[in-house]
Amino acid sequence: MSKKRCDWCEKDPIYVAYHDNEWGVPISDDRKWFEFLLLESFQAGLSWLTILKKRENFKQAFDGFNYHKIAQYDELKYETLINDKGIVRNKLKIKATINNAQKFILIQKEFGSFNQYMQQFINYKTIQNHFHSVDDIPAKTKLSDQISKDLKKRGFKFVGSTIIYALMQATGLVNDHIVSCYKYHDI
């Protein structure tokens, strides 16, 4: 008998692997936080599957998601990224990624880690939602609005409420597996 999963992931093996191994699993490593922040911002306006298929290319192009290196990117590196066919070549998103790496480091200095900063919004405990259908899951919430507003105030780009809610789902700040999904009780 096959496992019951969230409906959104059942059409592609890449989606299934992502769903089963990563989506909604709480993280604490700042490099992983930055990876998801980068990928979610590049996803805006595209399908998540497109981003997942290009994930390794993003990792290579952006120095293994090393935000310290990314924060130092110069015009030459920017031009290299604009011409990299393996990633999404959006000028604004690339510039935003460099900017966000710089702001990410500032948050680390203020809070000790980006994880600490994000966890404070949920009082260090995953929000357990109880959705019965993928159609019930919101695109954003009051909390994602709050986090988005705070990040924008700190100078981050491409961090709208919908992007932030997707980040919250991916990184386990919220458990949005539907209740019939086998992963629901694991989170």
Nutshell version of this structure?
The chain is mainly alpha-helical and 187 residues long.
Explain how this protein is built:
The chain is mainly alpha-helical and about 190 residues long. Helix content is about 50%, strand content about 0%. The chain has a single domain (about 5-185), classed as Endonuclease III, domain 1 (Orthogonal Bundle). It has 10 helices and 2 strands; from the N terminus they run ααααααααβααβ. The longest helix is centred in the middle third of the chain and has 21 residues, at about 90-110.
Helix residue percentage:
40-55%
Q: Which consecutive residue ranges, at least 5 long each, have pLDDT under 50?
A: none
What fraction of the residues are assigned to beta strands by DSSP? under 5%
CATH topology: Endonuclease III, domain 1
Class from helix and strand fractions: mainly alpha
Rounded radius of gyration (Å): 16 Å
Main beta-sheet annotation: 2 strands, parallel
Instruction: Label the CATH architecture.
Output: Orthogonal Bundle
